[in-house]
Specification:
Elements (H helix, E strand, L loop, with lengths): L14 H5 L13 E4 L2 E4 L2 E4 L2 E4 L15 E4 L15 E4 L21
Antiparallel strand pairs: 1-6, 2-5, 3-4
């Protein structure tokens, strides 16, 4: 059994659609930055009479077990307010390939607050 501590997703983004109606949007290319966030909301459930029912039991909350949903985000925002893009993470587009572990190259990581 693998403990349920991580999740991953592969996402195809409709970049042209994301740029529509935004005159300031810049086409993704080397060095361009976008603010983005990816979120997952997970409700606890229980089976009652063969059907799923919500049984909120937040595990990521300050007080685990309280009656709320878990909210997982790619870059932390400090509180659950997905409608505040100024708190989203920064995605930097690059024309460079990611170094592989086998190549022995060090990946240069930059962090922005």
């Amino acid at each position: 059994d693998i403990p349920n501590t991580h999740w991953s997703a592969e996402i195809a983004l409709p970049l042209r659609k994301l740029m529509e109606n935004n005159p300031r949007a810049q086409k993704p290319s080397d060095g361009i930055f976008w603010r983005v966030n990816f979120s997952r909301v997970q409700w606890g459930v229980k089976v009652v009479n063969g059907k799923y029912e919500k049984a909120p039991s937040c595990q990521s909350c300050a007080n685990p077990g309280q009656p709320a949903e878990d909210n997982w985000v790619w870059s932390k925002q400090g509180e659950v307010k997905m409608h505040l893009p100024e708190r989203w993470g920064i995605l930097q587009f690059s024309g460079k390939s990611t170094p592989s572990r086998e190549s022995g190259e060090d990946a240069e990581m930059k962090y922005y607050e």
